Amino acid sequence: MQEKDSDSEITAEPVVGGLSRRARIIRKLTFIIPVTILSLIVLVAIFADLAWLGFPDVGLAPYDPVKISLPDRLMPPFWAEEGSTAHLLGTDKMGRDILSRLLFGARISLSVSLLVILITSSIGTMLGIIGGYLGGRIEAFLMRITDISMAFPPILVAMLLVVSMGPSFLTVVLAISLLGWAPYARLIRGETLRLREMDFVAQARIIGTSPFRIMLRHIFPNIINPLIIIMTLQIGLLIIVEASLSFLGVGIPPPAPSWGNMVNDGRNLVDTAWWISTFPGIAIGLVVMSGNFFGDWLRDRLDPKLRQL
Amino acid sequence: MSKILLQVEDLHTSFFTRAGEVKAVDGVSFHVREGETFGLVGESACGKTVTGLSLLRLLPEPAGRIVGGKIILDGTNLLELSKKEMRKIRGKKISMILQDPMTSLNPVYTVGDQIAESIRLHQNLHDDNMVEKEVISALRLLKIPAPEQRLHDYPFQMSGGMRQRVVGAIAMSCRPRLLIADEPTTALDATIQAQYIALFKDIQKNTNVAIIFITHDFGVVANMCHRVAVMYAGKIVETATTRTIFKASKHPYTRALIDSVPRLDRKDDRLYSIKGQPPSLLNLPPGCRFSPRCSVAQEVCHQQEPPEVEIGDGHSVSCWGVK
Amino acid sequence: MADVLLEGRDLTKHYPVSKGLLQRTVGWVRAVDGISFTIERGKTLSLVGESGAGKTTTAKAVLLLEKLTSGNIFFEGKDVYRFTNSQLKTEYRPRVQSVQQNPWSSMNPRMRVRDIIAEPLVVNTKKSKQEIRSRVLELLEQVGLSPNHADYYPHEFSGGQRQRIAVARALALNPSLVVLDEPVSALDVSIRAQIMNLLKDLQGQYNLSYLVIAHNLATVRYMSHSVAIMYLGQIVEYGEAEELFQRPLHPYTKALISASILTLPEEDGQEAKQIILSGEMPSPLNPPPGCRFHTRCVQAMDICSKVVPQVRVVGQQRVKCHIYADPSVSPGSS
C-alpha cells in the first residue's frame, strides 16, 4: 500500500456494498460452490437408483453395488491401462463397480448423517431449552448428565454399542446418536440463558405466559439460527464418524457400501489398487469441506445483530 | 476573539452499503476557534457522530469514506495527509472521547498503562519515571483523587463516572489543541454529569483546548457550549451562539426541537411534538430535508434545498422561510 | 378521600452477596430499604433517582418479577402476596402491565406485531381469533399506528414506533396500572414528546394509573402527579409534583434539579446557584451510617452522620432529612 497519494481519502474509488468487486465475488463463491457440491451429492444419493419409486433397474448407478463379478476384479479407472469404460472408476477386489458403490454409498452415508443430526438435535435442543430456562435442580441435573455423556469417548462407545447390538444401519445410527446430543444441549442451554434475560421474555412473564409457552414461542424461535449453524457443521463431522466406524470394522455391515467401509476395503491395497480407497476418500473430503464452508457462510450471514435468516 | 483553529469546508462523508450510498454527512461547513466549545446537536442519524469521526479520519473502512471537502487544522488540510502523518495528529493535536466508558477502556490493562500508551507514542518519552509523571499529571487534570494509587487500578474497579474521567485523561494526556467529545455524558447520571461538565470547563480554562461537543441533550449544550450547530439528516440547518439558539433561533427544526423538550423551570401543559420521523438517509425527500415535517413549509421548500445564509453575528440558517 | 389503586408499604429488597468456594453470604446489597408510596387511580407516580437508587428494583417488585425481602403491596386494598396463583393470574397480572425502556429488546424479534400485541389476549382470555384480531387493530389505532403495520416485524419500525407497539401491548388487557420503566429515554428527543403526549392522552381516556421510573426530571415534571425521589434505596422526598419542583426540600432534590435545569451561560447569577455534588453515590452494599446522603450533602450537619432521619411531613410533602426535624424550620429556607 502506497503511503502518499492513495491515502488521500477523496481520490480513491467508491466501493459498493462495502466490499471491493473481488471480495464480493469471493464471498458469493464461498456460498455457491459448497452448496452446489452438497446439492449434487444429495441428488446423486437420491437418484442412485429409482427402486424407491418402483424402478429398481433405473438410475444413475450403472451396476448393482453388491453384485460380485470376480472376472472383473481389481480393474483400474477407465483412463489407466487395463481400465475400461465399462467400469469408469474401476472395481474392487470382489469385482463390484466402484462408481455404483460410490453413488449408493452416498445414500447410506448421508442418511446416517442426517438421521443422527435429526435425533441428536431434537433431544439436545429440548434438554438445552428446558434446562436453560427452568434452571434450578432441573438444569443442574440435565447439565450433569450432559457433562457425563461428554466425558465418554464417542467413537469407542459407538463401537461398543454396535458390537453388542450387532452391526446394522439402525444400530450404527443409534450408537452415534447416543452421545451426539450433548454438544447441542450445551450450546442451546447457553443461548437459552442469554435469551431468558431479555426484556421480551420478562414481558411475557408479566403478561402471565406459562413457562412452556415461553419456551416454545419465545426461546425456541430465537435459537433456530445458532441451531442451524451447528447442524450444518455436523454434516461433515458425522460422515467422518460413520467412516471411522466403518474403517474400524464396526460400521455399516458389508456388502452394503458406505464410504467408510469402502475406504476400509481398499486399505491394504493402497499401493496397488489405489482407486478403491481414494474415490470414497475424496467424496468424504468434499462433503466435509462443503459442509464446513457452508456452515461458516451461514454463521457469517446470520449476523448476531440481526438475528435473522 | 481567538483565532480559528479548525475550519471544515463542505465536508461529504458517505457509507457505501448494499442498499446504496448513504450520505451521512452531506455538505457540512463550520469552524471552531481556539479555546471555545462548539456544540454539534441533533438526533440519531443526523450525522453528528460521523462528522466527528471524519475529522479524525476514523471511519469504518471500506464502507465509510470521506468523499469531498476540506478539514483544515492550523492551516493543514487533514484530508491530504498520509495515514502515517494522520496517526501523528490523532491523540496529539486532536483527541476524541466516546460515549461508553466501558468499551473505551481495555479491561485487561491498568488505567495507568492505557494513559501511558498515548504518552509514549506521542511524546517520545521512554524513561518510565517521566512517563509516570505525565500519567499522574493527566489524572490530576481530570481531578481523579489519589492519582498515584489510581494508576494501578483496572477499569472494572472504578465507577462509571470515574471511568469516564480516565477516558478524558487519556484524551488529554498529550494536551491536544482540539478535543472531540461524542456524547460523553449520555451514560452518566444527572449529578455526575454536572460534575463532569464543570470539570471540563475548568480543563478548558487551564489548557485552552477547543472542544467539539457532540450531543442530543440541549441541557448539556446550554451548560457547556459557546456556539452550536444544529444538524438534521446530514446537513447543518442552523449555526449560532448558544444564547441565540435558545432565545432567538430561526430554523423551524431548531425551534420545534427546543419546544419539544420538557422544561424543568416551568410546568408545560402540552409539549409540542414534531410529527413524523427523521427521513431515511437512503430515501431523502426532495428539497429541504425537514420540509415533510415542517409546520411552516412553503412550495419552494419541497422543491429546492435552501442555501446557508448568514443572518447576523455568526448566525447562519438554511431555510427558505428566513430572509 | 383519594382513590388508592396500589400501595407499597415498607418495601425492602436485599440481595445476598456470596463469596468464596462455599458461597457464604458475606453481605447484603440493600437495593430497596423500606419505602412506602401510594398510586391513585388515574394518576401518575414517578420514582426518580440515579442508577443504584433502587427504582428499577421497586418496579420489578410491583410487577412481581422480584420477590420482596419484606414489606407489602396492596392492590385495591388486598395484600398481593396473599393471592393464590390463580388469583394472581386473573386479578393482578392482567390489571398491572408494563412498558419497558428498551424498544429494541422488549419484543420478540421473531414475532409479528399483531402476534406481539395479541399475546396477552391469547394467554389470558378465551377470545376467538376474530375478536382478538379486531382488538389488535383497535389498539394499533389507539396508539397512532395503521392497521397494515400489524403484519410487520419489530425491526422494521423506528424506536418511537416500537414504543407505541409496546404501549398497545400493555393496553391489550385493559389494565388499571401500567409500569413504565424509562419509557422515553432511549428515544430521540423529537419523538419523546410524541410518546409522552400519547401516554397522557391514554391516561385521560382510560383513567390509567402510571408508575413511571425515570431519571430525567423534566420528563417527570411533565408526566407526573406525584413524585418520589429515591437515593440509595430510600425515598428521601415524596409529594405532589408541582409542590416538589417549586419548593424542593431535600438537599438531594435540590441538587438534582440544579443539575437538570437548563442554564444558559453568561446568565447573571446562574453559575453561582449551581449545586455540584462531590463524589458519587456510595455502594448499596455499604450505605453510609445515619442519613445515607450525608457524604455528599452540602448542608450536612453533625447529626446527619450518626442518626437516621425520620420522615417528616412538611406541608404536603414528606421528607427524610434532619434539617426538617425542627418544626420551627420553614420549608422555604435553603
Question: What can you tell me about this protein's structure?
Answer:
The complex is a heterotrimer of chains A (309), B (323) and C (334). By secondary structure, chain A is mostly helical. Chain A has helices at 21-47, 98-134, 136-151, 154-165, 169-180, 182-196, 199-207, 211-247, 259-265, 275-301. Chain A has a domain at 100-301: Orthogonal Bundle (MetI-like fold). In chain A, 39% of the residues are buried. Mean pLDDT of chain A is 83; it is low at 1-14. Chain B contains eleven helices and twelve strands. Chain B has helices at residues 48-55, 83-89, 101-104, 111-123, 128-141, 147-150, 160-172, 190-207, 218-224, 242-248, 252-260, and strands at residues 4-17, 20-33, 37-41, 64-73, 76-77, 94-97, 178-182, 210-215, 227-232, 235-241, 309-312, 315-317. The model of chain B has no long low-confidence stretch (mean pLDDT 89). Chain B folds into two domains: 4-93 and 176-317, P-loop containing nucleotide triphosphate hydrolases (Rossmann fold); 106-172, no CATH class. Chain B is of the alpha/beta class and 323 residues long. Chain C has ten helices and twelve strands. Chain C starts with a strand and ends in a 14-residue tail after the last strand. Classes of the chains: A mainly alpha (309), B alpha/beta (323), C alpha/beta (334).
Name given to the CATH architecture of the domain at 4-14 and 27-247 in chain C: 3-Layer(aba) Sandwich
Q: What is the top-level CATH class of the largest domain in chain B?
A: Alpha Beta
State the distance separating the first and last CA atoms of chain C.
33 Å
Show unreliable segments of chain C: 329-334
Largest sheet of chain B: 8 strands, mixed
User: Helix/strand-derived class of chain B?
Assistant: alpha/beta
Number of DSSP E strands of chain B: 12
